[in-house]
Design a protein that fits this description.
- The chain starts with a strand and ends in an 18-residue tail after the last strand.
- The chain is α/β, with parallel strands linked by helices.
- Helix content is 21%, strand content 31%.
- It is globular, with a radius of gyration of 18 Å.
Length: 213
């Protein structure tokens, strides 16, 4: 699967087109954008509907990060749009003391036309058990999105997770996007397009144990 990364603040509705050579569009956090569920429900705003329509018109999967406001409960989130539908919204599952963000319930795996994609938000990057659960559930790739800037530790974690769990990971930060393959190597993008290759070949090992009565 080929993933095109747009820097935060880019109007992806105008930039992404049907005939371009990539399958997934990822947009990082835009600090000025917040989805208010109450306004989306009563029709005052239609951002979610617009992104869903774009996924159908361009025949691409959209993964867009934004803060969500559920009647005053603020969360770090990302929406996944595919074939004209909103498949779901993933929230950051952890929150620390003093953080303005509330945690979400659990990680999510999305079955898109591009493949089975898991989404990790914000500090979920530091939860190995979450990524391990993605692997157990059959994720072919993971898209991680953070509002903070990139760091050397981020790259180390990505390479380790990919090597240990067997799927490629793309991390989109405020200032940079990096990706790792199943060999634990960093992937070089071409025109901001990353090619994420899932691991489909597995070797099953069995062990015989004899118990003496």
């Amino acid at each position: 699967m080929k993933v095109k990364v747009f820097i935060p603040g880019t109007d992806i509705i105008k930039k992404a087109h049907k005939n371009q050579d990539y399958d997934i569009v990822v947009n990082g956090f835009n600090q000025t954008e917040r989805i208010r569920y109450s306004k989306e429900l009563n029709g005052e705003t239609c951002r979610l509907k617009t992104l869903a329509e774009c996924s159908e018109n361009t025949a691409k999967t959209y993964i867009c990060a934004f803060d969500t406001d559920n009647y005053g409960i603020i969360k770090h989130s990302a929406g996944v749009f595919d074939c004209g539908k909103l498949l779901g919204i993933s929230d950051m599952t952890v929150a620390y003391s003093g953080s303005p963000y509330m945690p979400g319930a659990h990680g999510k795996l999305y079955d898109t036309k591009s493949g089975k994609i898991a989404v990790a938000i914000g500090d979920d990057l530091f939860r190995y058990e979450l990524f391990k659960s993605f692997a157990v559930c059959g994720a072919e790739a993971v898209i991680a999105i953070r509002q903070d800037g990139s760091s050397e530790m981020n790259g180390i974690l990505l390479r380790a997770y990919s090597y240990l769990l067997g799927f490629p990971i793309l991390l989109v930060s405020r200032d940079k996007a990096i990706a790792s393959n199943v060999k634990g190597e960093l992937i070089e993008p071409k025109d901001d397009v990353f090619e994420l290759v899932p691991l489909f070949e597995f070797s099953i090992k069995t062990t015989k144990i004899k118990f003496n009565k």
